[in-house]
Design goal:
The chain is built from four helices and 15 strands. Helices cover 25% and strands 24% of the residues. It has one domain: Creatine Amidinohydrolase, CATH 3.90.230.10. Helix 3 runs antiparallel to helix 4. The strands form five sheets. Strands 1, 2, 4 and 5 form a four-stranded antiparallel sheet that branches. With 260 residues, it is of the alpha+beta class. The structure holds 2-amino-4-trifluoromethylsulfanyl-butyric acid and cobalt (II) ion (2 copies).
Length: 260
């Protein structure tokens, strides 16, 4: 079988220490913003608060000016799949779901994590979409260990999403992360168990499944950033940065009280 040659960075012990700090700050930023993610707040206010928090902690918000992205975080609501641009006009209201995606650049390393927030009273069908999406992320994470194939992650996510009759976005994927925001490998959220590179201790990558209530197809808005579902069905996403350890995995962006 022919395999694509890709170079996956193996981080040294010192590099891992530095990444832990950046990832911990990204997680802390989500904890910090959580109480503000409520009805009547604009996504621009959330952006500005996160920006100040990240800068106060001696870091830089990686999205800002990344290939021209205009804000410091991504806020993706309802039918928006990912890369939503915070806006004064985008005001959260009861029934909405929103993904807040934080990436910090600290010590020369990026840390990337996102979570969904339910605003007020959310339709039980939508709530289930959000819960299953988190479950998909956990099942993907739990396949990670030295010697396993990267494809096991996507296979586990695929099984969980399809069992619940949801679709998986294929146009965007997880990624290696470190000194660069997006490194090799691409982490697919649908896959066959035996495909992809073999995992080794010191690899660091994100897993960030985007799961849709309807079809998997996406559409890019004219702003060249906002990704939405083509059928306008609602979409959910969670993201963690994961280290492959000698024995399994470490979730570098774990929030306090989050048990995996
Ligand atoms: N944080 C996103 C990811 O998980 C990437 C955002 S790129 C941006 O990979 F430019 F939109 F910020
Ligand atoms: Co990411
Ligand atoms: Co992200």
């Amino acid at each position: 079988m022919l395999q694509k040659l890709i170079m996956i960075n193996i981080k040294s012990g010192r590099e891992i220490e530095l990444m832990r700090e950046s990832c911990a700050l990204a997680a802390k930023t989500l904890e910090y913003i959580a109480p503000f993610v409520k009805p009547d707040v604009s996504t621009l206010e959330l952006n500005d608060l996160c920006h100040q928090f990240i800068v106060k902690n001696k870091a830089y918000p990686s999205p800002l000016n990344y290939h021209g992205f205009p804000k410091s975080i991504c806020t993706s609501k309802n039918e928006i799949v990912c890369h939503g641009i915070p806006s004064k006009k985008d005001i959260l209201k009861s029934g909405d779901i929103v993904n807040v995606d934080i990436t910090t650049f600290l010590n020369g390393f990026h840390g990337d994590t996102s979570q969904m927030f339910l605003i007020g009273e959310v339709d039980p069908k939508i709530k289930k979409l959000v819960e299953v999406t988190y479950q998909c992320l956990l099942l993907g994470i739990k396949t990670v260990r030295p010697g396993s194939k990267l494809g096991e992650i996507g296979a586990a996510i695929e099984e969980c999403a399809h069992k619940n009759n949801y679709s998986i976005v294929e146009d965007y994927c997880g990624h290696g992360i470190g000194r660069e925001f997006h490194e090799e490998p691409q982490v697919l959220h649908y896959d066959t168990k035996s495909s992809g590179p073999t995992l080794r201790p010191g690899m660091v990558f994100t897993i960030e499944p985007m799961i849709n209530l309807g079809q998997k197809y996406t559409q890019l808005l004219k702003d060249k950033w906002t990704v939405l579902t083509r059928d306008r069905s609602w979409s959910a996403q969670f993201e963690h940065t994961i280290l492959v350890t000698e024995t399994g995995f470490e979730v570098l962006t774990l929030r306090s009280g989050e048990i995996i």
